[in-house]
């Protein structure tokens, strides 16, 4: 489904992602794990065509992304790590803008937006300006906004940060449901337990390099650990 | 393509609609002051080219106002790019850069035309006699494209908010006064005059004034404006594409 070959991203004096290669299979939940600054967000930004790679190639369904940007953008949904709403629009209008940009017809648009708002219990605030939402409400909105156009591939950059336990569970349930519908999911998280429960496979990044990639179970067996978190600490070093 | 342009325009329209009264009132203050101070106060006993000063002045005010409104209508994109990051929605969307830029510039044209209409109404109330035509409106639109485009390029390239406002102080403000808006550029010293007469706003003032007062105008100025508009539109698209670097 997605193939990455020798992907590298250099900023002025810093290599954020260093020559990584791997494949993500159709329909799997794929976790990108690593410490702060490991290069997870930068990798996602390259995969979602928000930033150009310094070198290397990206393929979606065997087609290079180069000169194929619009087609790729139709396939993907992106939940960024940071809040990026249009501050001049209210909750509903932010959703509507996304829906229009992805060419949903009016009737489908309205139905889809209300259904998603209800799902994360934001129906009551749909006419509020986004500035007025609490941190967790903004996160929920960020997630459902990415789902409006029913993307085949969903990127979630720390989707459950700042969510209360109930909502977090709801988001897990949502992610699992999406997988059942055949959506391919790429997520990053610092809750290693979350990755262990959700992900079919995880990749560990450290200082921009890909150091290991496998199923959570295999990792635990290979490293003789009880949890993926222990594997994480061993692989990425326990020093900050 | 058209659908995407409309979406981008729609977003700006609903934001404008919400503040329409405020927008109109606030954007009318400066032109009224110009009309009163220069048109009534200073210009009462002045006549230019056998016409009244107010007939000379209003096209100049229209030109500079259209420049300022167009430029400043589009500069909020700077905050959307740098602070709110909401520009990412458009970067991630399956739409072309051309659609985005066209939608944004169209919304700026709308704002500038609303404001121009207000000035014209005021000017007529102040007793100005001006001749409006399709070409006149066309020149105003070209001027809007040029300065909305410049605003867009600035918003895409400039790093901080401070530098954004410096463009207003160091570029737009001098042009507001020097580009044939309040007086003819022929009165300027040679060196400065050459430089000023290259600038697009000078051509806009000259054309608007000529058309409004039924003077003969040179086609060259119109061609200059069209070239400016096309080049700046093209560069606007490039500046948006460069966000992906
Ligand atoms: N625009 C940028 N300019 C310069 N350096 C950058 C830029 N964006 C990221 N970096 C650097 O690249 C490295 C990787 O950053 P990235 O955001 O990808 O890390 P991350 O794994 O997502 O971290 P976190 O868990 O904190 O979100 C960091 O050292 C960061 O400082
Ligand atoms: Mg990150």
Largest interface: A-B, 27 and 23 residues
Based on helices, strands and strand pairing, what is the structural class of chain A?
alpha/beta
Number of self-contained structural domains of chain A: 1
Q: Give helix and strand order of chain A, one letter per element, not per position.
A: EEEHEEHEHHHEHEHEEHH
* DSSP summary, beta strand count of chain A: 10
Order of helices and strands of chain B: HHEEHHHHHHHHH
Low-confidence stretches of chain A: none
| Order of strands across the main sheet of chain B | 1-2
Tally the helices of chain A. Answer: 9
- Under CATH, the topology of chain A is which? Rossmann fold
Helix content of chain B: over 70%
Distance between the termini of chain A: 35 Å
Give the overall silhouette of chain A.
globular
What characteristics describe this protein?
heterodimer, A: 240 residues, alpha/beta, Rossmann fold, 6-stranded mixed beta sheet, 9 helices, 38% helix, B: 245 residues, mainly alpha, binds adenosine-5'-triphosphate, binds magnesium ion
SSE inventory with pairings:
The complex is a heterodimer of chains A (240) and B (245).
Chain A: E1 2-11, E2 14-24, E3 29-33, H1 40-47, E4 55-60, E5 63-64, H2 69-75, E6 76-79, H3 91-101, H4 106-119, H5 135-145, E7 153-157, H6 165-180, E8 184-188, H7 192-198, E9 201-206, E10 209-214, H8 216-223, H9 228-236
Parallel strand pairs in A: 3-8, 3-9, 6-7, 7-8
Antiparallel strand pairs in A: 1-2, 1-4, 4-5, 9-10
Helix pairs in contact in A: 3-4
Chain B: H1 2-18, H2 20-42, E1 47-48, E2 51-52, H3 53-74, H4 76-82, H5 88-92, H6 97-125, H7 134-157, H8 161-178, H9 190-198, H10 200-212, H11 219-241
Antiparallel strand pairs in B: 1-2
Helix pairs in contact in B: 1-6, 2-3, 2-6, 3-6, 3-7, 3-8, 3-10, 4-7, 6-7, 6-11, 7-10, 7-11, 10-11
The structure holds adenosine-5'-triphosphate and magnesium ion (MG).
Residues 40-41, 81, 157 of chain A line the site of magnesium ion.
